[in-house]
Amino acid sequence: MKPVAFDIVRPRTTEEAVQLLSSPTSGARVVAGSQSLGPMLNLRLVQPQILCDITGIEALTSFVEEEDALVIGASVTTGCIEDRRLPPNGFAMLPDVAASIAYKAVRNRGTTGGSVWHADPAADWPSALCGLNASCMIAGPGGSRRTLLISDFITGAFENDLKPGELLVGIRIPRQSPGAKWGYQKLCRKTGEFASAIAVVNIDRDRGLYRLIFGATEGRHLVIPDFRILCENGRAAPSPVAVRNVLSEAGASSARVSQQIAMMQRAFSQAGVRCEN
Amino acid sequence: LLESLSSLDHELLHRLMAASPLNARSTNTKVNRPADFRNYALEFERVHMTRLRPSLHLLKLINCMEALKERRLQWSRSSLRFSKAAAPTTRSWKRRCQAALHAAFCELARLMTFFPDPSNPPECRAVDVRRPMQRPPSIIPGYEQANIKVTVDGDIEIRVGTHSHGQGHETTFAQIAHEILGVNFDRIKVIQGDTANTPYSTSTWGSRAIVMGGGAVAAASRKVATRLLAIGAWLLQTDLAHVRVEGGRTVGENNSISFRDIARCWYLQPQNLPADVDRGGLEVTEGYRAKSDFGTFSYATHAATVAVDPQTGLTEILDYVVVEDGGTMIDPMIVDGQIMGGTAQGIGSVLYEATPFDAEGQPLASTLIDYILPGPTEVPDVRILHMETASPNTEFGMKGIGEGGAVGPPGAILCAINDALKSKGAEIYQLPVTPDRVLAALAAASAGRAPTALEMS
User: Fold this and answer.
1) Region B69-86 average pLDDT
2) What three-state secondary structure class fits B319?
3) DSSP secondary structure code for residue A5 in this structure
C-alpha cells in the first residue's frame, strides 16, 4: 500500500499547470484533494512521475458569481460548499448535496472539480451537477479555452473528454429560478459509503428544464434531459413503468432498478411533486 | 420471538439427532474419541434447508449441534445460551434451565412491549434439556496460571498469559487482585500475553479470560496473601491466627503493617525475617482450574425490531434489547462495553460483512472501501438488561462475557427480517442480508418461486 516514488510540482497559475501537463515527457498527473487519487496511488492503479498540485492556483479556489450562473473553481472543496460559502440565491441544492457526501474529513479535502474529473458513476457531484445542467470550463495549451456540458464531458465510467495538456479549471452552474424545484436522493448501505442508487430531479419551468439523472449506474450516469417524455396521462412525474424500461435497457439489474425508482420517487417527493407507485 | 420459541420444539431436535450420521453409533456404543462434526454440520444444513422450516436461530451455532449430538447437558443457540451450572439431578437442573429461560423471556417480552399485560406473560414452551448419557467433552478445559509479585515499594505486579485485545483485562484483573489484597487500584500493574515475561497460556478465547485468567489472579493473590500474613504477623509480634489482610496491610488485633514495610523487610532487611519464612518470598505463580470444564460463559437473549424497505431492500434496526446473565460482574461498565461491542460485531455479520470472490478467485473485498463494517449510524442504542446469577463454578461467581454479544444478532435480526418479509411470502437465510438479497427474495416470492442460489450469492 505504498505509491511509486513521484515528485510534486505546485504551479501558481493555470498557465504554468497547463504548460507542465502539455509536456509529453513529464508524466504529470493533476491532484487537488486527493480523495480518489490517494487510494489509487496507494494501490498503484496510477503510477505518475509527477503530481501537479493545483491547489496553489488561487484562481481555482474561489467562487465567481455571474448574473445567471455561478462558477466554482475546480479546487473548491466540498466542505466549502457544505458550509455555504457560496451565494445563497439559486444554488440551494449544492450545500444539500455536499453535506451528504462521505464524511467531513473527506469533504474538507475533496474537490468538486476532482469529483467531476474522476467521473465515478457512484459519486455525487457528476449526477447532481448534471442535474443542474452545469458545464465544465477547460483550459488548454496556448491559452485556449473551451466549455463543455457535464453530460458531454463525462464520456463513460471514470472517463472524460479532457485532451492531453488540458486542465479542468472550473464548473459553471446555471442559477435556478426562484420557482425551481429540485430533489436529490441517494441510497447508501452505510452512512458515508458510495451510493448504490442516485436520483436527481431539477424542475425549472422558467428555464425549460425538466431534468432527471440517475447515478450509481453500471456505466456513466443516465441522463434524461426532459423527463416529460416518460410521463403518462398528463402527470407531472414519470411513470415508474416507463422508467423501469429505460433503466433496464441501460443494463441495470432488477434490484438496482427497484432502488433507482425508489430514489426517483423520493426525489420527486422532495421536489414537492407526487410520483405514482 | 414467539415464532422462535415455537421452533424450540422437540421435533426439530429429534430430527436433527436422527439425522446425525453418528447417531446410530452413539446409541449403541460409547463415543470416546472426538467426533467428526463436519458431516453432522452438513447433514444439519441439508435437513435444515430442505425438510424443515428454517429455524434461523439454530443456523449460526453449529457448535451447539455438537453439544446436542453428544447429548450433553449444556446446549446453546444463537439467541438463547445456557451454561450448565451443576447437574445434581435431571429434574432440578431442567427446572432451573427452564425457569431461567422463562425469566429471561418474560423480561425480554416486557422490554420489547410485545405483550401489553406483563402479569400475564405467554407460556414458554418446554426446552429439551437432558441429562448427559456419559461424560461430555470439555469446552474450556485445563488450567491457567498467574504470577503475582509484591515489589519493593509494596506495589503489585500481575503477570498473566491471557491478553486483552479490547476486553479491559488491565482493569478487571487488577480489580480482582484489589478485591483480595486491598492494594489501591492504581498501584496494581497488569503485564499480559508476553511469553518472555508471563506464564504460558492458550490466551484469550471462548469467553475464558476472566474465568481462567481472573481465577488464576485470585488464586495467586490468595497465596501471596499468606506470605504477607506470615511475615506481617512476625513483624507485628503476634500470632498468625490473629492477622488478616485489609486495605493493602497486614492487620493484627491492635496494630497493622503495610505491604510496603513488609516488602522492604523481605527485600532489604532479611535479617529481621522469621527463621521459618517461606523462601518463595513475595512472588508466587499459582494455577487455577474452574470447577466446570463445560463452559463458564454467560447466557444471553437478544431481540430486535427492524424495518425492511421492500423497495430498496435496506434494513434498519429500530430497537435492540439484550438480556444477559454474566454472573457476578467484575466491572459493569466493561461488561456493557463487551456486550455493546459484540452486538456491533454481530450486526456486522448479519447485515454487512462478507468476503466474496469473483469467478477467477479474485477477492472482491480486499480493502475497507469494499468490506463494510457497521459504524456509529448503523449500530442502534442497544438496551442491555443484566441478570446476575452467580456461577457456582468460578471465582466470585463470574462468567465469561466475551461472546454473548456477538452471537445473538444474526439469529435475532435475521428472524426479525424474515418476520417482516413474511407478509410478502419471502424468506432469507443467507448472511449477510444485503439489499440485493432482500430484493431478490422479494422478487422470487412475487413470482411464486424460491430464490436461486445465484440470486442469493
Assistant:
1) 33
2) strand
3) P
CA distance A63 to chain B (A): 32
Name the residue of chain A whose CA is nearest to B436's CA: A255
The Cα–Cα gap between A90 and A158 comes to 29
Question: For B382-386, what is the mean pLDDT?
Answer: 93
Q: Would you say B435 and B321 are in contact if contact means Cβ atoms under 8 Å apart?
A: no
Contact A255 B375 (CB under 8 A): no
3-state SS class at A146:
strand
The pLDDT score that the predictor gives to residue A89 is 87
The strand ranges marked E within B52-187 are: 144-150, 156-160
Mean pLDDT of B63-78: 33
Give the residue ranges of DSSP H helices in B112-213.
Answer: 169-181
As given in the structure block, the three cell numbers for residue B338 are: 463487551
Sheet with A28-31: strands ordered across: A7-9, A50-53, A28-31
CB of B366 within 8 A of CB of B429? no
Q: Count how many pairs of residues, chain A against chain B, have C-beta atoms within 8 Å.
A: 48
Residues 151-190, chain A, touching B (beta carbon < 8 A): 187, 189-190
Nearest CA-CA distance, residue B414 and chain A, Å: 17
Minimal Cα distance from B372: which residue of A?
Answer: A190
Question: Chain A residues with CB inside 8 Å of B312's CB?
Answer: 187, 197, 258-259, 262-263
Beta strand pairing call for A50-53 and A7-9: parallel
Cross-chain residue pair A189–B377, CB shorter than 8 Å: no
Burial annotation A96-116 (CB, 10 A radius, 16+ → b, else e): ebbebbbeeebbebbbbbbbb
List the pLDDT tens digit at each of the 277 positions of chain A.
Answer: 689 999 999 999 999 999 999 988 888 999 999 999 999 999 899 999 999 999 999 999 999 999 999 999 999 999 999 998 888 889 999 999 999 999 999 999 999 999 999 999 999 999 999 999 999 999 999 999 999 999 999 999 999 999 989 999 999 999 999 999 999 999 999 988 899 999 999 999 999 999 999 999 988 899 999 999 999 988 999 999 999 999 999 999 999 999 999 999 999 999 999 887 7
- Residue (of B408, B282, B262, B415) closest to B347 by Cα position: B408
How confident is the model over B334-354, as a mean pLDDT? 95
What is the C-alpha radius of gyration for chain B, rounded to an integer number of angstroms?
26
Residues of B at the A interface (Cβ-Cβ below 8 Å)?
309, 311-314, 352, 367, 369, 372, 374-375, 377-378, 434-436, 439-440, 443
How many CB atoms neighbour CB B450 within 10 A?
13
Nearest CA among A260, A155, A246, A165 for reference residue A215: A260
Residue of chain A nearest B439, judged by CA positions: A255
Burial class (CB in 10 A: 0-12, 13-18, 19+), A1: exposed
**Cβ neighbours around B234 below 10 Å, total:** 21
> Do B375 and A254 lie within an 8 Å CB cutoff?
no
Which of A250, A119, B388, A242 has its CA nearest to residue A264?
A: A242
At B299, the amino acid letter reads Y
| Bridge partner list, A154 | A160
| DSSP secondary structure of A36-105 | THHHHHHTTS---SEEEEGGG-GGGGSEEE-SSEEEEETT-BHHHHHTT-S-STT-THHHHHHHTSS-HH
Cell numbers found for residue B456: 442469493
| Cβ contact, residue pair A255, B436, below 8 Å | yes
What does the alpha-carbon distance between residue A269 and residue A182 come to, in Å, rounded to a whole number?
9
Task: Please give, rounded to a whole number of angstroms, the shortest distance from the CA of B437 to a CA of chain A.
Answer: 9
Asked if A197 has any chain B CB less than 8 Å from its own CB, the reply is yes
Inter-chain touch A191–B309, beta carbons under 8 Å: no
